[in-house]
Amino acid sequence: MSDILHIVGGGMAGSEAAWQAAQAGVRVVIHEMRPQVGTFAHKTGNLAEMVCSNSFRSDDSEQNAVGLLHWEMRAAGGLIMASADAHRLPAGGALAVDRDPFAETVTARLMAHPLISVSYEEVTALPDDGHWIIATGPLTSPGLGAAIQAETGAEALAFFDAIAPIVHFESIDMDTAWLQSRYDKGETEEERTAYINCPMDKAQYNAFIDALLAADKTEFHEGETAGYFDGCLPIEVMAERGRETLRHGPMKPVGLTDAHRPTDKPYAVVQLRRDNALGTLYNIVGFQTKMKYGAQTAVFKMIPGLENAAFARLGGIHRNTFLNSPTLLDSQMRLKSRPHIRFAGQVTGVEGYVESAAMGLLAGRMAAAEILGRPIEAPPFTTAMGALVNHITGGAEAKTFQPMNVNFGLFPPLEDARGGRRGRKERYKGYTDRAKEDWQAWLAAST
């Protein structure tokens, strides 16, 4: 019993943690409450179900920190990345995933592993002994959340995470919209035409903003506060910050040329990204919302090309809780008051599918190494994974701690000339070159 690793939560982090530990030779039990206990955001009982976007974001491992994180996870034999690569969709320079086959593949591979079993049950208390990883994500059940809160003696921080709507392709007017990735990015024609673009002139944009601001919104329950994560703001919250905010955010028109009217410069552009391999579903990029369903339908049909849109899913909003990890977790991602318990994924205060899975990868490797009697240190801060875990376990200021995507601002400065006044492209290449070398050395030393 003492040699078994128990993982609470079968999302991105829990699934990756289970895979890494089992591949190291440790027996694993995943405790997953779905489908016995559902959430409003999940639709299936699959492990690693994607509930918000279907994008893993940039796959550029030389110029982008999240692309570097992809590279590090692939180098470590990550299950999440292997499954994402197997179900990749055209998305310019991004890694977008056909979400249902992706989750089915992760589930099948975990269930087929001889050292992994799944127990479908809700865990509502912190365990007193054994080896545990809690990877319950932003929708931690009320019972377990209360137990964590009682143990830490601190109020769990909270913000609201919003879900973007999905549209049936056949209902989009392609005489108005056109296919193009921003700046025609991509190595193939399919990649260069991975997005549907809906143009707006100035009058249409202003009418859209007016309707957005006036629309009925979801009301918060008493005692809840709307502390949004800036990387996932509802569009109406962005609009409230200024009429031009959306034009400089998800509706920016740069890098796009209207295929039907090439001499007309759109004032704003709404982009949709393919959501499944068949190309029958597209999600509206950056259009997370807390509008009520009736209002969503009316407002989104104001977008040129979407006048007759049929929605496979409307947007939604949910509370997202996370630990004040810099005060509660040590460098091994262990709860300081109960070091037999590790935390991983979004509940630690990282944001995004890839970051969550990456923290699961580290937690699984660290827990397995400890069980096998050969503990390992956290990876160096010069790597994407090391920079991220350092941020959540002490690098961030506890008083102002907020969820964080991986970014080069978390990396230590370069010591060579590329860290000075040289161009950003060369500097980013310096970060990624250094990270890859250090990550491979860490993997070799810790395997």
From TrEMBL:
Query: GO molecular function, one example?
Result: tRNA (uracil(54)-C5)-methyltransferase activity, 5,10-methylenetetrahydrofolate-dependent
Top-tier EC class: transferase
Name its co-factor(s). Answer: FAD
Flavoprotein as a keyword?
A: yes
* Key word Methyltransferase present: yes
The function of this protein is: NAD-binding protein involved in the addition of a carboxymethylaminomethyl (cmnm) group at the wobble position (U34) of certain tRNAs, forming tRNA-cmnm(5)s(2)U34. Catalyzes the folate-dependent formation of 5-methyl-uridine at position 54 (M-5-U54) in all tRNAs.
Q: Could you tell me what this protein is called? A: Methylenetetrahydrofolate--tRNA-(uracil-5-)-methyltransferase TrmFO
